[in-house]
Amino acid sequence: MSGHRPLTDAERVDWLRLAGTEHVGPITFFQLLDRFGSAREALAALPSLARRGGRSGPPKVPSAAEAQSQVEALSKVGGRWIAAVEPDYPALLCEIADPPPLVSAAGRIELFAKRAVGIVGARNASANGRKLARDLARDLAAAGLVVVSGLARGIDALAHEGALPSTIAVVAGGVDVAYPEENRRLQERIGAEGLIVAEMAPGTIPQARHFPRRNRIISGLSLGIVVVEAAERSGSLITARFALDQGREVFAVPGSPLDPRARGCNALIRDGAALVETAEHILEGLGRLPETLAEGRRRSTVAEAPAGEAEVDRARQTELGLLGPSPLAVDELIRQCQMSAPAVLAVLLEAELAGRLDRHPGNQVSLRYPSGL
Q: Which residues contact 10 (CB under 8 A, 6 or more apart)?
């Protein structure tokens, strides 16, 4: 495995171009990288792969100039892009199923190397919830941990304030975009004293679809997630679900059944989350985890031997007929096809680049346009 090395300037531009290509999500990005060995070779292969998947024209790819402008824009605000093969990329984040190929980071990069806990909760938090979030964050930071949150109003903001300077804010837009506006000063302070992280390019205004992607990074950076207050359909519960899928600890603060803001936390506890009321409870829950972060696996940049074209043709004829609008686990698809994993994954890659495939949590896929097959 080739990794744990700084990218050259030219390689970083190639990575940004591939990561920004139409229909190339994180999973597809790393499959392309593993198959072709470099982002440049993957970019060259995109048109033929998309045609094999049923697309008439090539996918839209950012130009080298556009990618270079992202590098320069981030540098102007004191940040830099860090790729998943580089030493400064957080090891825990590399372990999730769909890590960002690159993250933009502004502030104290060294915080990535410390053990971290996420604290999330309601935007319309109660006075008690706000105080508890601040106190938990302060005590966890005093114990040597970094507190990760999403810089939303309410619990997130209080967690950052309590932990400063030992805090990482994961934002849904660009690192240079203040959102919500009321947290502008807090965001500026975190950028100066802590660390701001984003998957999006500088200048990106947050949109609704960006927040679940942000939430998986919050949990991905953390050994565990603490939910302080959350309604039944809170975005904080999405973060908790990501944490469970990623094999992280989930903690929840109990609350009155009469308070709608406690129902999400109480439901998490009923489903097996650890009940916590103090930082000591959280530290006890993390006690069985390693004291230092493992190095973590780094993403490969060595080309894998592709499946034979004849086998890929057979897989293409078989597996697309098995897929439909309902998500199906990739492992189950491989089992039903009775073909090699490389052949099945090659066909899925082609279909995704053609815009015909959707990916879902839990390594599941579905066809976007089943009626056209």
A: none
Can you tell me the distance from the alpha carbon of 267 to that of 205, in angstroms, rounded to the nearest whole number? 33
CATH number corresponding to 309-372: 1.10.10.10
Would you call 83 helix, strand, or coil by DSSP?
strand
Classify 58 as helix, strand or coil.
coil
Please choose, from the candidates 337, 336, 335, 349, the residue with its C-alpha nearest in 3D space to the C-alpha of residue 304: 349
- Cα dist from 309 to 147, 265, 344, whole Å: 49, 51, 12
Distance CA 103, CA 124 (A): 29
- Put simply, whether the predicted model's pTM sits higher than 0.85 gets the answer yes
Domain 106-286, CATH:
3.40.50.450
Domain boundaries, the chain: 9-86, 106-286, 309-372
Positions in the chain short of pLDDT 50:
1-2, 292-296, 298, 300, 370-373
Rounded CA separation 186/192 (Å)? 10
